[in-house]
Specification:
Blueprint (H helix, E strand, L loop, with lengths): L1 H12 L6 E6 L3 H15 L2 E6 L2 H11 L7 E4 L2 H9 L3 E2 L4 H6 L12 E13 L23 E2 L6 H14 L1 H13 L9 H9 L5 E5 H9 L9 E4 L10 E9 L5 H11 L2 H11 L2 E2 L8 H5 L10 H6 L1 H10 L4
Parallel strand pairs: 1-2, 1-3, 6-7
Antiparallel strand pairs: 3-9, 4-9, 5-7, 5-8, 5-9, 5-10
Bound molecules: fe (iii) ion.
Fe (iii) ion binds next to loops.
Length: 331
């Protein structure tokens, strides 16, 4: 026994068996940092992170095949998780703890990926040019009253693809086809930039209503000490068919991972009460568990009627959504 321990000790310290975890992350490292530090201190597992766009990371893992160093892939949209699953990059996450705390609609039905945090895709509008009474659900944005007012990024953005996918499920293909025709006509400008740029474009008067992910706006709003955003208000879209669209940031464990045990430990940590609170508050997101007590700003901004589609079904609609957006001429 003693010899076994000694050998293991030597192997770890000569890096032949490294007690490590390699994360390929589509989330910026700064956003993950407070969590990584905590996890490293708790476990003695050394975490290495490679950050890039989800598509690039997925391609890299495909190319490297079984020689990839990646243990975990973290993405910021269910569409990419689904994509990685279809490319057969993941193995099942076997953890009763995780199954217990993550609602079914926020994880893969075969447990190939799991959601870690939630975000909504809502409207931000200029209160001087848009009347609150005029706001309804997503579908209403095809109405001519929105002509020249709408700001949104391009159709190759996965957040938009997931929103349209969810609309197809909620409203049906026919209605969404008609919606897209009118919606694209109402754009204030050719889609460009990220979600934050759409908010800035309201401030510069280029348009009046932006469709953005909640955390970008909530962070800007909370840090807005000079009242630059005082004329902007958020709105949670809702009508008889669809409530406010939700998406996840999430993760899967890579099929060829040599550190599966560490990978599961890490995901369990992110989904623990402690991990969830940090993850949500640092990133201005909503926790995926419903038993987390948030700071007052986030708890105030987490109360809205949430759409409750099964996210893997939303993700499976991705190709159809892209096709329809393209036909409608959404650049
Ligand atoms: Fe984002």
């Amino acid at each position: 026994m003693r010899i076994y321990i000694l050998i293991t000790y030597l192997l770890i310290n000569t890096n032949i068996i490294a007690n490590e975890l390699n994360i390929f992350s589509a989330r910026q490292e700064v956003l993950m940092k407070p969590l990584l530090d905590k996890f490293e201190r708790k476990t003695d597992i050394k975490v290495n992170i490679i950050a890039a766009k989800a598509n690039q990371l997925i391609n890299k893992i495909v190319q490297e095949g079984e020689f990839t160093k990646a243990d975990i892939l973290i993405t910021t949209d269910v569409g990419r998780l689904h994509n990685a699953k279809e490319k057969d990059l993941f193995q099942k996450i076997t953890s009763k703890k995780i199954e217990k705390v993550v609602p079914k609609i926020f994880r893969d039905k075969d447990n190939y990926w799991v959601g870690l945090s939630l975000r909504s895709r809502f409207f931000v509008y200029n209160k001087n040019t848009v009347k609150k009474e005029d706001l309804k659900g997503y579908l209403d944005l095809r109405d001519i009253k929105w002509s020249n007012k709408i700001l949104i990024r391009s159709s190759n953005n996965v957040y938009n693809q997931s929103l349209i996918s969810a609309m197809i499920i909620n409203y049906g293909e026919k209605k969404v086809t008609k919606f897209l025709e009118g919606f694209v006509e109402n754009f204030a400008r050719k889609p460009s930039g990220g979600d934050r740029d759409q908010i800035r474009a309201i401030l510069s008067g280029e348009g009046d209503l932006a469709i953005v992910n909640s955390y970008y706006y909530l962070k800007m709003k909370n840090e807005d000490k000079n009242g630059k955003l005082k004329d902007l208000i958020e709105y949670y879209p809702q009508d008889n068919f669809m409530n406010t669209h939700l998406n996840v940031s999430g993760a899967g464990i890579i099929k060829s991972s040599k550190n599966k045990g560490n990978a599961i430990k890490f995901l369990e940590f992110l989904l623990s009460k402690e991990g969830q609170k940090i993850y949500a508050e640092v990133n201005y997101e909503y926790p995926i568990r419903n038993d987390i007590k948030l700071n007052s700003f986030m708890s105030k901004n987490s109360k809205f009627v949430r759409d409750d589609l099964i996210l893997s079904e939303v993700a499976a609609m991705n190709k159809k959504a892209i096709f329809m957006m393209d036909i409608a001429g959404w650049k």
